[in-house]
Amino acid sequence: MKNSMHMRFILLLSTALLFAGCGEQSGEDNTSPEQFNPFDVTWSSGCRNGLLHAVSFDYAAGRFSGNSIRYRDVNCTEVSRVGRNVLGGYYTVGDDSVVSGGFVVSELDIVYDASKVANVSTFDPAPFDIAYLDPNTKIVYLGLKTSTRPGTSRSTRPTAIDFNNAWTTQ
Known about the structure:
Elements: H1 2-23, E1 42-44, E2 51-58, E3 63-71, E4 79-82, E5 87-99, E6 103-112, E7 128-134, E8 139-143, E9 161-169
Antiparallel strand pairs: 1-2, 1-9, 2-3, 3-4, 3-5, 5-6, 6-7, 7-8, 8-9
């Protein structure tokens, strides 16, 4: 009798768990590319010659912040220094437009916060860029810089994508 009570309890519990499991999502990412917002996530540069950058975007607030990790080696295996809020500021996403190659890109206007940047002259204080999100891989590519001089404007915004400047979304 005692064993049958245990068996009923196990069957009842198993049945309850089965039905509870059926109501949950499968864990697959069913987000369509149209629903995914690349400007409300963190982008990672991946290891680039001993340096890794991560930039987090908050779409509702229109703010971004970035950190960097410097490694002792070019393969990014031994951490040397971790930056904290090494850059940041405000951003707006402009119109979508088509650039060379037929890619639909988003205009990206960035204003760096001087208090978040160690040497503001390193960064254009108000760069105008473009970003292309590959909907299949969720990798973001930025525009091909035609000039690194400060003082760029909307009229000098890049018109091509730099596929060597890939950032993965997190």
